[in-house]
Amino acid sequence: MDVSVVIVLILVRWTCSISEVEMVKADSDVSDRLTLESVRDSLIRQEGSIVFSLIERAKFPLNAPTYDPSYFSMPGSYGSLVELVVKQTEAVQAKAGRYENPEEHPFFPDDLPPSQVPPHKYPRVLNPAAVFVNVNKKIWDVYFNKLLPLFVAPGDDGNYASTAARDLECLQVLSRRIHYGKLVAEVKFRDEWKHYEPPIRARDKKTLMDLLTAPAVEKAVKKRVAKKASIFGQEVKVGDDSDENKGKYKVDPAVVSRFYGDWVIPLTKDVEVQYLLRRLD
Amino acid sequence: MDVSVVIVLILVRWTCSISEVEMVKADSDVSDRLTLESVRDSLIRQEGSIVFSLIERAKFPLNAPTYDPSYFSMPGSYGSLVELVVKQTEAVQAKAGRYENPEEHPFFPDDLPPSQVPPHKYPRVLNPAAVFVNVNKKIWDVYFNKLLPLFVAPGDDGNYASTAARDLECLQVLSRRIHYGKLVAEVKFRDEWKHYEPPIRARDKKTLMDLLTAPAVEKAVKKRVAKKASIFGQEVKVGDDSDENKGKYKVDPAVVSRFYGDWVIPLTKDVEVQYLLRRLD
Q1: In this structure, what CATH number is given to the domain that contains residue B16?
Q2: ipTM of the predicted assembly exceeds 0.95
Q3: Which long-range contacts (CB under 8 A, 24 or more apart) does A10-13 make?
Q4: Which of A44, A230, B1, B180 has its CA 20 to 30 A from that of A29?
Q5: Which domain holds residue B133?
Q6: A100-156 pLDDT, tens per residue?
Q7: Which of residues 27-56 of A touch B (CB under 8 A)?
Q8: Contact criterion met (CB < 8 Å) for A155 and B13
């Protein structure tokens, strides 16, 4: 890239999402800018990434050998091919500094190589105990066992490496969205700490869950992700507004909506409760 | 995943794209099924992947240190961070067998580790000399120097590893689409070999390029990718059909359309010509 272009472009900050704008501010004013609305805006934007990742995974059939530990053997006993691709790609990204960002959570945190890039000053918004909240094992389980069989077609086209790369993409965007619950919890705590402090001290998960639950918002989220799946997963033709392909989607909007309702939203709230229970540590 | 689910799902083949359906057939009937229409269908589907990958990259600002060789130093002198991430991720995917598929082309083919998975019998559709046609150096150049500055916002949010991962995604889908020109050329050659053989023997690139050029098709492609960029890059709201966000897109449809016209289509035709010149070897 031309140095001049880089220099010109780098002069102006971009406004994009809470993670990329609000959070980039100096620590001192992060608290002011962290609002429930800004956090929700980011969650809304992440829905698109999730829908895209599922549509891209659905271009491949199931490709079962990707998940079969007996399919291949490699020194280091990685289990299945998808485990190898996820572990080793996470290792590459760890060296490049991905997991220095508190919004990113590896699926295989053990033996991850350290970052080899200069440290970046991510703002400290969360309680440091946030680092102990990681539900990726559960996300791995529900993605492969609950979601995947519902939105990919059966079959085997041999593209297991590409399939695993697409799975990693799905896992990463789901993980990012679900662990964003830490920020949701933080902003809710800041807004209404008087309500949250007693159940936190009493370790009353039930009351915390009730406080965190907004049925109307959850309903709207489910409706919106279904709409996104139908818009982003449609066949697009030029000069053809016929209804020929109407109702044909690359990933069933009802599956995405149901997965959100059954897993994404509940797991996000699990993260919120786990984070809150450590909020006063 | 439940073994029973896998067994049930694996019983049926999925129908998806030429690479995943037509090409998976036994060698004997591939010739019959490889048609200009099926190849074009695959190219159309790949447009969506390209638009998705650009929208996902555009979530991050430019993040110039990702491309600056002086930003970090690591044993092995990888150059910039994006080079490290691309090289090392390609190495992971190579071990998992990605580049055994003749439709996939690495950006750093030197020193790529061999596949460590059992060989998959990809159908032999192309002339074996196809392996010598790889325009990834040019794709790398135009992606970083021509396209990237046009669709990402200026700024720096520190997420260089994620940025590089998104760049790799863009590069891979562009590479796949452009090298699909080999299949386009093969099917055109089969359909009209009498027209192609004389200029191939005469090494007459100009005539070959004229034979391969269909201005009406190219115009339709450019129009369709712009439409896809506007549909997939819109803000989606539930119960809000106001025009508030009309015309606001995550990636400018005109930029995508122009990039297709200026680079994607011409590079695809370059691949077609290069392949045809070796077609009779």
Answers
A1: 1.10.590.10
A2: no
A3: A10/B62, A10/B64, A10/B154, A10/B155, A10/B156, A11/B154, A12/B153, A12/B154, A12/B155, A13/B61, A13/B154, A13/B155, A13/B156
A4: A44
A5: 3-277
A6: 999 999 999 998 999 999 999 988 899 999 999 999 999 999 999 999 999 999 999
A7: 45, 48-49, 52, 55-56
A8: yes
